[in-house]
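job 3f2a | input accepted
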Amino acid sequence: MIIIPFCYYSQGALSIFESLNYFMMNYKTTITECFKSTFKMSLMVMMILSATVTSFSQIINTFPRVENFESFNLCGTNCGDPCTLANGWVNAANDDVDWTTNNGATPTPNTGPSMDHNPGIPPGKYLYVEASSCFNQTAALLTPEIDLSVVPNLTASFWYHLYGNNVGTLHVDISTDGGNNFINDIIPSFTDNTDAWQKKNVSLNAYVGDTVILRIRGVTGNGALSDIAIDDFQFEVLQNSDAGIAVIDAPVNPITAGLQDVIVRIQNFGSDTITNVDIEWSINGTNQTTYQWTGTLLSGQVSAPVMIGDFNFPSGLTDLRVWTANPNGMSDSQNSNDTLAVVLCSALSGTYNVGGVNPDFNSISDAIFSLSTCGTSGPVILNLTDGPFNEQITLPVINGASATNTITINGNGETISATPDLNNRHVILINGGKHYILNDVTIVSNSNTYGWGIRLTNAADSNFIKNCVIDLSAVTSMQSSNSAGIISTSSPISDAGAGNNAKQLTIENNTIIGGFYGIRLNGTQLSKSINNIVNGNLITNFYSYGIYLIDCESNILSGNNINRSTRSSVGTFYGIFLDIRTQNNLIEKNRIHNTHGAASMLTGSAHGIYFSSSNTLAGLENKVVNNAIYNFNGTGPVYGIYNFTSSGSRIYHNT
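job 3f2a | predicted structure (655 res):
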């Protein structure tokens, strides 16, 4: 018998069935999560379930065995996002946060990798711990059971990325009793501050005859620049002669076109001491002159940096690959760890074509990957042609982006579409990205359950969304957490994720169709969502809320046309809703009308502008000026402007 406490909100979160499903997949959720939402809890359910607990562990008993995480589902990138892993790998239940599956770059610049270790391209996946707002937190990853009963000289190895001014530590622990107890730090804990993937070997010789579980503990540092990543685990019998490239030290991204030294470090992955080895390398598939290294490299040792040659690197993308051959004049007995590759590039500036004939980039994701890898040295325009573009897009922080060096996705009316799911409800995610301009793009959710046209999170400030069409007509779900045209929320699954999500956001001259909300902006009590402008938009056929603000300050909502003229399935109508601690906002020249134009049920109440617990200080009053509220065509209660315990409002010259 399992007793599971979980939360169900009648608005602002998940349905009762989604809540239970999400809890079962993410067991760290506890009843305390109920009180994190800014919505008031309307119902708490205690369910008693009779259940059979299934173990998902798998035993590793054939070697070599590789886990590269490519089959794992992507997870959220915010601190504390839960993540369900696969293939017998699990997040421990008694730590602080989860290891999460990611691809491409991590959201925060100057920490974390720009892509996975292997295959080293944007779709490649890895596990990482997000450090932003997650300082001094522990994430514990458990391997499947490893059967050492008949295998001598077994080594576990993995690649790690520890980079950032606040970098934390990695620990490797072991259990011989099924995970009940662990021996900590079977190798010394380690840290680094190198923007490169590096390899770590762990000998399991001392545990021959046992069945063991390894625990990888990542501990973040005391600041946001301490993301930790791991990739490409391998369990193999240690070979005698085995060398490989440990690090490519130079050049690093972004590069300056011209002559550059190529500098690497090699590592002895075998048991024999290495005294000589060939270092081969290629540029864009063309082999370069072999460098013949000599010296003394003990088992497990990494060499000093070696300059193997130089190359006149061009502008644009360059594929650099380096590998070892013939350690001690013999064949390498394990080739899987010989090679490292990196895509090098100079910072982008100018106009690039995405899609179409002879494009600069085949997809938007490819273009964003290049930007996140290479940065920008001037304004960048991505012109979309020959769509539609069927891809779910993440817009991260780009080095070099600024109010001058903006990044414009110029849609030319082309469509970006995706089929969002429970853990990834967006079509476009602006994850910490700044100074993006989305212009003239049609954004479509193909799901009938989920659809956040654009989600902003992790201080996604100073962005501009203009002349776009966001179409959520396919979404028929009536759950508030499932759909919104534009939403800023810290949670990947809740509409009510308070946080430092977005500031200085401009939403102008867009058409937003459908969704539970047209627009919802969440700040937090200590970090208001400030200086946003919502101007001249058509917001239509939403289920309940046209524009919803909570913990927002100094915003301008001006000249918007908010109506529900052709939607048949409707809820309570709120044209503009100002929730708690929302102050110093100007609401002017908006037209709010036609609340039940095609509604199958006309009895629901309708509110033009609604204030809820938005008390303001002197000088920070909300101003409601020159708005037209008319043609409320339902049969239920009608409120032009509704004030619920909100002092300090200034309401004048409205019709």
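job 3f2a | Confidence is low (pLDDT under 50) at residues 1-56.
job 3f2a | closed
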